[in-house]
Amino acid sequence: MSDLNLPSPSSSSTPQTTPSFNSSELMELRTKCNELQSQTNTLRIALLVVAFSLGAFFFLESSRSGKSLTSLRPQAAQIVEASKTIDPAVTRFLGQLAEFTKTHPDFGGILGKYIGRPSATPAPSNAAVQANTKPATVAPVPAKK
Would residue 143 count as lying in a domain? Predict the structure, then answer.
């Protein structure tokens, strides 16, 4: 394109005049404007198609999830009822384990590690066990010739 020589907007004292364009330049600008407008319309349509497709996908997934949820609710209710009946037995068993750790302090560390409850008396550490035991005497092994 050629140089346009547009008047600057800061000069308000001079009257605004429209620049003179050749008919070929004007036609070129109109065709480019029409091309851009058609590209914009095409992109809008593509965006609309993608948005509707994504909305339809989410709607289908939502309805499928709802159907699977309704089919799983009876099974979940059975599991909840079973856990309600088993909970007292589990708490009774954990109470028995706590009583067992009172008579067997070595088991307290295991109970604390796997059940998550701190034991009443901690299990002795390896250093304390080794300090109280005598080291085993080992007979020397004769060297091979």
Answer: no
CB within 8 A of 110, min separation 6: which ones?
123
> What does the pLDDT look like over 29-81, one tens digit per residue?
999 999 999 999 999 999 999 999 999 999 999 999 999 999 999 999 999 99
Average pLDDT over all residues of the chain: 78
Is the residue at 137 inside a domain? no
Whether 9 is in a domain gets the answer: no
Look at residue 32 and tell me if it is in a domain.
yes
- Tell me the pTM: 0.41
> Is 86 in contact with 73 (CB distance < 8 Å)?
no
Q: 116 in the Ramachandran plot: left (φ > 0), alpha (ψ -120 to 50) or beta?
A: left
- What region does 5 belong to: left with phi over 0, alpha with psi -120 to 50, or beta? left
Give yes or no for residue 19 having a pLDDT over 80.
no
Residue 125 CA to residue 109 CA, distance in Å, equals: 10
- Structural domain containing residue 35: 24-124
Q: How many domains does the chain have?
A: 1
Tokens of residue 47, six digits: 């965006």
* pLDDT of amino acid 90: 87
Amino acid identity for residue 59 in this structure: F
